[in-house]
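Quick illustration, no need to memorize.
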Amino acid sequence: MKNSIKLINLLIIALFLSSCNNDDNNTQIITLEDLQVTIDENPTNGQVVGTVQSDSNSNLTYSITSQTPNGALSIDESTGELTVADATLFDYEINTEITAIVSAIEASNTALVTINLNNLEVMLQDLAVSIDENPTTGQVLGTIVSNGTATNYSLISQTPNGALSIDANSGELTVADEALFDFETNPVITASVSDGEATNPAMVTISLTNINEVMIFTFDESIDENPTNGQVIGTLQSNAVGNPNYSIVSQTPAGAISIDPVTGVVTVADAALFDHEVNQGVDAIISADDAMNTDDFEIQIDNVNEIGDYNYGGVIFWINAAGDEGYVVALEDQSSGAPWGCYGLNIPFAVGPAIGDGEVNTMAILSSCTDSGIAADLANDAINGFNDWFLPSVAELNEVYNNKATLNASIIANGGTAFSNNWYWTSTQQGGNANNAYFQFFGNGTQTLNSKANMAIVRAIRHWTDF
């Protein structure tokens, strides 16, 4: 019986010890392994550096406790995979190694991560491109590529000088002076580029492709005002083969001219715009297909003397057939009431009635008559910078009356005073009668004789020529 009891006690003790041993085996200590790797400098963001390992197959939650320099690495909290977070910190010249402390919530220790950087020689790649000639300023030509992280690109030399520009940060090359990209002048443009770090300069070669260029040659013409629609002004010239397809890019005033797209003949499109008093010229820009230039030219509109033009000190009221000789009338009356004068004095050379006789009549009156304040004397005064004014003959004053409406508009526009509907003196004395001279009523145009002693308005005229 005692032996049975002892056996039972031994069994109980054995079971207790077995239970204690099982509890100890179920409590596992998890440790993290240090990580040491070597990589080349200048990696890319997101590049995998390595993975922190543990001695357990359990799922752990990883984190970076600290790192030097700060912000260099990222870690996947589920896998422990380390990646580059800021590639600019992986520069051997700045940091020869990157270190970090990694922990896991379930682990009993932390892992030391050491990343050694290999110093690389920074090399720039040469750039060779081919483009059409005549690009635009600012056009991108290409980008210098480096195996480093250079941000200080510069042009060491270039031929021709001033052709290129480079972005110091990106290495992007652009056209600086489009005029230098002319195949006929510079078929190849070269340059060398440095980044301040690379062991070699990058050689840049830009080959220009010749394109079919159309040149439009200078066009300068003049035309008399008041042409007719369709009248030919001139012809543009170019070196185009076949149809250059000329077109008007712009013109001022708009709609003034037209151009034949094939022949380049420029014609009047709106004759009303060719009025010298309104427009002294037409400015236009002409282009053509494949043209490397536009033609910016002016068509000068030459003044042609017309009735009503303000010129030669007054307003034109008569022009000869050639347009190079005529008469103007003053902007103001020289008197609102003055006598013809010389009553009872016959002046034989003051009886001319025709156009061209007024000046002779006036000179005859002034040389024969000593009366003061008379119409001829008032008309012969200096007016508007000219001193050769005179009293009009019968025919001359009648021409003034016939154009009164046109003359009044121009006179007022130029600061003068319109004609009164009243009597105006002529310089024409009645032939053989020492007491009478002709005057004209500007209300209805009546011309008749009046006593030289009576009063009438004085308005002077003068003669002009363009030869």
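The longest strand covers residues 97-104.
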